[in-house]
Design a protein that fits this description.
This is RING-type E3 ubiquitin transferase. Pfam families: zf-CCCH_4. One of its GO terms (biological process) is protein polyubiquitination. The chain is mostly helical. The protein is built from four helices and no strands. About 20% of the residues lie in helices and about 0% in strands. The longest helix has 5 residues. The N terminus is likely disordered.
Length: about 80
C-alpha cells in the first residue's frame, strides 16, 4: 500500500495498542508517523479515554477555526 494511501486513513486503534490482527488487510492506517486529519471530538469535550493512543488529533480548535464565513454575494462589474 502506498504511503499516501496510508496517510489518508485514521490510525488503527488496535495497531496503536499493538493488538491489530488484520495486518495489511486492516482498513485503518498502520503508520504511527502519519498526522491525523480529524480532531478527536471526545478530546474537545475533555474526555478522550484513548489518550496518546487515540487515532484522532488532540488539538484545541480556535474560535477562528470554528467560525464559518458569512454568506456574501459576489458582484462582477462589466
Amino acid at each position: 500500500m502506498s504511503a499516501n494511501a496510508q496517510q489518508q486513513r485514521p490510525l488503527c486503534r488496535y495497531f496503536a495498542s499493538n493488538i491489530c490482527f488484520k495486518g495489511d488487510n486492516c482498513e485503518f492506517s498502520h503508520d504511527r508517523n502519519a498526522k491525523p486529519d480529524l480532531v478527536c471530538r471526545y478530546y474537545l469535550q475533555g474526555a478522550c479515554a484513548y489518550g496518546s493512543r487515540c487515532r484522532f488529533d488532540h488539538v484545541r480548535v480556535t474560535a477562528a477555526q470554528k467560525a464559518v464565513p458569512s454568506a456574501q454575494t459576489c458582484s462582477l462589474e462589466k
